[in-house]
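Here's what a typical entry looks like (Magnesium transporter MgtE N-terminal domain-containing protein):
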Amino acid sequence: MSSTPARVYAARLVGLPIFDPQGDQVGKVRDLVAAVRSEVHQPRVLGLVAEVFGRRRIFVPMTRVTHIDSGQVYTTGLLNMRRFEQRPTETLVIGQMLDRTVTITSSGTTGTVFDVGMEQARSRDWVLSRVAVMEPGHGLRRKGQTHVVEWSEVEGLTRREDTQGATHLIAALQEMKPADAASVIHDLPPERRIQVVAALDDERLADVLEELPEEDQVEILEHLDSERAADVLEEMSPDDAADLIADLPPETAAMLLELMESDDAEDVKRLMSYAEETAGGMMTPQPVVLGPDATIAEALAHVRDPDLPVSLAAMVYVCRQPLETPTGKLLGCAHIQRLLREPPSTLVAAALDKSMDALRPEATIDEVAAYLATYNLVAAPVVDDEGRLLGAVTVDDLLDHMLPENWRELGPGKAVG
């Protein structure tokens, strides 16, 4: 491991790809596992928590790590695919040590941990050797002074904190995709998870909730006060919010719907009026809807929205007024590939695909799957008896309902069947 840097910092490792000797990626780094027993002796780093296919978390011993650089981690390729379970004697460096309040013994300075460095000892074991500490900011200074000190120069790393902050862990989570951040939060100890959830802003928490298993969603929502829970539900996509509210006790669901903004609540109530395993129960009421006088340039401007899911950006729906679902009569759908081939000043109505019959809200999962497969689509319109657009059902919504409820917890090759 001569080319491995002398010292590696934990926060910079998170998210790095893990490769086998053939150069094939086998996972991503999610955390480090250390045996922290005292504040005098440098803790031994036992291994990495890696996320592999199916968002499964496994343990990769440091003895299997052959090389680390600024952009990747290499292993021997011999990985045990058994799910990682944290032991009482183990500490997650990212999940549990960041934001710990500590004191630098030489100066009496108090601050919070924002990173931890590891290096190889003479025994070839990896140990936690450095602690990066940030003092509280003062006055107009947004950030306090930072210090990087030896492990033995810091007090408080072995002390359990009931009021541990989450600033630096949140900063690490913000750099991740929602699904990756959800995986980290799912694996946190319960008390740490509550602290992190409290520190996330409503929009980010909504994104993360949509990627968590149902039991985690319900548990997190129950720990929020009612006003904040309603705010977070408003930030979620209506179909995901409807699924989550349906899992709550009826009195809690009714209270939260009452606290939500009326427009958001109406969307959710409408989705909840359909059976869960139908097109109506799976659809989103917020596809890209345009009037017949819209140009292709306007359509492309709408689908460029970075917050729009890929599946919803693949198609626009042209309807008569009103353009909010349920709309006026659906005139047809336009595929983005077709729009890209047309002059921007052309009306979208001139590029409609009128060959498709829209889905009805009572269509079953099998019927939706057959429809998407027949037309090679990633999204499809759902209309009522009068031909008004109610929403769009997407392939990712379909998969969420077709896979087992605990599909996020299943390992490679076990997601279906």
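The chain is about 30% helix and 25% strand.

More examples are in the samples folder.
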